[in-house]
Amino acid sequence: MNRGAGRGFVPQILLLPACVGLALLVLPLITLVARVDWSTLWADVTAPEAVSALLLSLGTGLVATTVCVLLGVPLALVIARSGARLAGVLRALVTVPLVLPPMVGGIALLFLFGRSSWLGGILGEWGIRIPFTSTAVVLAQTFVALPFLVLAVEGSLRTTGVGYEQTAAALGAGRWTILRRVTLPLAAPGLMAGVILCFARAIGEFGATALFAGNAPGVTQTMPLAIYTAFNGAGVTQGTAVALSLLLLVTAIGVLLLVRAWRPETPR
Amino acid sequence: MTGVALDARVVVERPGFVLDVALHAAAGEVVAVMGPSGAGKSTLLGALAGLAPLREGHVRLGERVLDAAPGVRTHVTPSRRGVVLLGQDPRLFPHLSAHENVAFGLLARGIPKRVAGVEAEEWLSRVGLDGMGLRRPAELSGGQQQRVAIARALATAPAALLLDEPLTSLDTETAADLRAMLREQLSATHTTAVVATHDAVDSVSLADGLVVVEDGRVTQAGRVRDVLRAPASRFVAAVSGLNRVVGVVEGDRWSSGGMSLPCVGGGRGDAAAVFPPSSVRLGPAAELTELAEGEWLARVTRLEQTPAGVRVRTADPEVAVDLSADRVAEAGLVPGVPVRLHLDPDGVRFLPV
Q: Which of A8, A94, A203, B317 could be A61's S-S partner, Cβ–Cβ 3.0 to 4.6 Å?
């Protein structure tokens, strides 16, 4: 086979911006790792605040991702099986939080669940207060991460189409059987991609969390907030921030590898 | 497992097109539906499978009413009809193995896993796929995939099986093997089936009855043999490989364009002359020779490659002549060339129009 055949006819000069782009993505991370003070690293990452921030991040991130799957998959199914016009409207609505600065999302969530709002008022009567709790962290993360999951799953469902579902129905399968044995397995690659994106977005979430949940260590101080606090801490060296960043980076890569290992065989 | 009778009248509206077809298949009978592309064959099968709502008509399977409209509207969802539609695309579930694909319908019907597994294995061997059960659809050839699809469909013991051009995407040899297998299994299981096809061989070898659908209507129906012998339209004539020329009878002569033949029986009115292309002889159109009985002058309009040589289309009237390729070259036939055609009147049948 011709070795050049697969390379197509891209102008060679484009190699230059491509390299710059790659460098822009990779160089900062390399520099970050280079700045790590290895002598204090272990102390930094095992400090109680660091551990609690990491556990909180992982915990809320997992819960948020689960919520995203439970709500996002049905939403994706609805969008994928709607007519073109309705699907367009729904997709636009889902995309809004994606293009919105997370800060704005945080303020909006605060207004919805705050004591002065109708919903916050009702919840308050039942003795439920959401802002500045761990629940708020999960809500903020879900708000920003849900669109990633919905769009990934919806794209996958739409590409597969309804042909296999019709076949399954003709063979006598009911709706739940079709969902469980045909629709979801066929959408698995999209679902997996969605879950990865969703989780990554959730544990990296900063803006909406900061405004809606605050920065209370152990309750709402997730890794990004802990890093921000350490970085801005008066008189504290930035070593802690660097160490925590490294921890977050390693965690993210670890999750990615773990999920990749579980990835089901891609159909076709 | 014994099939049940299928009785349907299907009226379905599509943009710029109305399908109105009545169809009947006795228990265990295989009925072929033929028609030009876009005639509504797939729409008909889709409606029988419950994928398209009827505007009018009914679908009955034995005692069960699957569809009725208008009036008391009935519509049984595809999963409860006991009707399986199998298309040109086998649509095997790509994430399941061949064995799991066949077992799918059995499990969906609540048959215990172990029993379903054994039955699926049996079906795979019946369609000639012994030992291939663990393969994914992507690891099977097109013909093998269609075999799995047939096994999957028949394994559910459908009350009726609908086949929409099941062999079209396969090469001739694979199609022939599959056709033989399908014929065997349909008759062994006594399954009532409707086969939409554009291939006369499918109709002849698989079906008992034939319904011809053109432009959304039935133009001819009957036993396969009877329909093909007496084509009532240009389409059926083309399918059965016959010439069908509509002309006028006056006294004991039939004529159409430059063509004139004796027509015993006489009478007046329109009649179609039916004859095979092989019975027409072609010669040079030497200008001054007189035309003998059964001879006429025509012009070549088109040449088509056939497995047996070349089909020469002429006008006027439109008559097809089969020649070997070397004869075509020898006679220098290209579109526009005048020719002299001769047809033995004994080989012609006249049909009322």
A: A203
Contact assignment for B105 to A174 by CB distance below 8 Å: no
Question: Alpha-carbon distance A225 to A141, whole Å?
Answer: 13
DSSP class of residue A5 equals: G
| H-run or E-run covering B297 | strand B295-306
Cβ atoms B182, B108 nearer than 8 A: no
**From edge to edge, which strands make up the β-sheet containing B160-164?**
B74-75, B64-69, B56-61, B6-14, B17-25, B217-223, B209-214, B30-34, B192-197, B160-164, B83-86
Quick one: pLDDT at residue A266?
A: 45
B135 vs A: CB within 8 A: no
SS3 B31: strand
Instruction: Report how many Cβ contacts below 8 Å link chain A to chain B.
Output: 63
A174 in contact with chain B, both atoms CB, cutoff 8 A: yes
Distance CA B313, CA B334 (A): 10
Residue with tokens 């008066």: A234
Dist CA A9 CA A4 (whole Å): 9
With beta carbons under 8 A apart, name residues in chain A contacting B146. none
Q: What sign results for the dihedral spanned by CA atoms A100, A103, A109, A115?
A: negative
Distance (Å, rounded) from C-alpha B46 to C-alpha A166?
A: 11
| Residues of chain A positioned with their CB less than 8 A from the CB of B83 | 170
Give the three-state DSSP class for B23.
strand
Give the model confidence (pLDDT) of A29-70 as tens digits: 898 888 888 888 888 888 888 888 888 998 999 999 999 999
Average pLDDT per block of 10 residues along chain B, 353 residues long? 81 88 91 89 89 88 86 82 87 93 91 91 89 90 90 89 87 86 88 90 88 90 89 87 87 82 74 87 76 83 86 87 87 86 84 81
Split at pLDDT 50, 70, 90, the class of A262 is: low
**What is the CB neighbour count within 10 angstroms for residue B96?**
19
The amino acid at residue A237 is T
Q: Which residue of B has its CA nearest to A188?
A: B95
The verdict on A214 touching B (C-beta cutoff 8 Å) is no
Do the chains contact at A186 and B95, CB–CB below 8 Å?
Answer: yes
Task: Give dist(CA B87, CA B70) in Å, integer.
Answer: 28
Residue A138 has pLDDT above 90, yes or no: yes
Using the Cβ of B84 and the Cβ atoms of chain A, whether some distance falls under 8 Å is answered with: yes
